[in-house]
């Protein structure tokens, strides 16, 4: 009887975990915008024969990206358990609010769902989304094989970032297999634009004035000013790539650079401890949103 009661509570426990550790209002918004922006931008850059419009396949890809991000969040929670026991004792896995078995069960369900959904789009879509999920799991094995990799922050970023890159490739190639766009070499700067937008937030959330070698901060490696400068440079890089790709239509997304600029001012001049993070997330969301509007305007103007 107790097992039945425990099992009945699992969805509620998972729901609380998602609300706390995944923050759907941010990550779902980001995943959906990421999908729409990449698809719209790819169409805008394609030839005159392109005919992309949001479709059922777009919904599948957006749901798959959001679920892949949640999958990665669940993996990270398990991977960092020993660290969190020392430094973040209020985390759900540490407190027992969720268990490893429950997270792994949810990960298995996510895998089944994305496979079934993407089977409706194309076999290549299934392969690429599974590759993204599989690479996330590979990172866990890699860090166990080489613990120093988990401690070397920059090296760890270099091997872990391809998860995000694989999701962008998944979106682009899945769209390509549907004959909605004509792919060309501009896919490379397009992927780089998204990479810069994401990485500036990654640096922002791990840049602080405080010194704590155990906190896994980029500011411990590059110094607070150096880490903040990298964050701002990545935002500028995303804007520059947008202008390169879209020309004068890229001026609207370029306005979103005010967010990281404000963050840099708050952090470097006002010395606000968390001055970078919220402006960085604002840049990610608004840059994607404005790029989508800009790419849509290009398509309409043809």
UniProtKB/TrEMBL annotation:
Keywords: Membrane, Transmembrane, Transmembrane helix. Its main location: membrane. It is a multi-pass membrane protein. The keyword Transmembrane helix applies. It holds the Pfam family UbiA. The chain crosses the membrane at residues 21-38, 50-72, 93-117, 123-142, 154-175, 187-205, 226-245, 251-269, 276-300. It is found in: Membrane. It comes from the Bacteria. This is UbiA family prenyltransferase. It comes from Streptomyces rugosispiralis.
């Amino acid at each position: 009887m107790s097992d039945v009661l425990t099992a009945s509570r699992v969805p509620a426990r998972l729901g609380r975990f998602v609300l706390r550790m995944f923050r759907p209002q941010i990550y779902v918004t980001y995943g959906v915008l990421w999908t729409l922006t990449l698809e719209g931008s790819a169409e805008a850059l394609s030839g005159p024969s392109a005919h992309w419009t949001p479709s059922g396949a777009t919904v599948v890809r957006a749901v798959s990206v959001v679920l892949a991000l949640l999958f990665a969040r669940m993996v990270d929670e398990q991977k960092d358990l020993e660290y969190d026991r020392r430094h973040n004792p209020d985390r759900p896995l540490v407190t027992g609010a969720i268990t490893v078995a429950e997270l792994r069960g949810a990960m298995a369900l996510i895998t089944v769902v994305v496979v079934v959904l993407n089977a409706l789009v194309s076999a290549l879509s299934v392969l690429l989304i599974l590759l993204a999920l599989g690479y996330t799991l590979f990172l866990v094995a890699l860090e166990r094989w080489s613990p120093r990799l988990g401690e070397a922050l920059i090296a760890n970023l270099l091997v872990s970032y391809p998860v995000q890159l694989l999701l962008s490739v998944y979106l682009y190639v899945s769209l390509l297999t549907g004959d909605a766009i004509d792919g060309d070499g501009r896919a490379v700067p397009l992927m780089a634009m998204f990479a810069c937008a994401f990485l500036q937030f990654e640096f922002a959330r791990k840049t602080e004035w405080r010194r704590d070698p155990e906190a896994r901060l980029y500011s411990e490696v590059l110094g607070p000013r150096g880490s903040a400068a990298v964050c701002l440079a990545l935002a500028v890089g995303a804007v520059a790539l947008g202008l390169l790709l879209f020309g004068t239509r890229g001026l609207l997304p370029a306005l979103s650079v005010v967010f990281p600029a404000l963050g840099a001012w708050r952090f470097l001049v006002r010395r606000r401890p968390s001055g970078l993070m919220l402006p960085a997330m604002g840049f990610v969301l608004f840059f994607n949103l404005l790029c989508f509007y800009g790419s849509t305007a290009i398509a309409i103007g043809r």
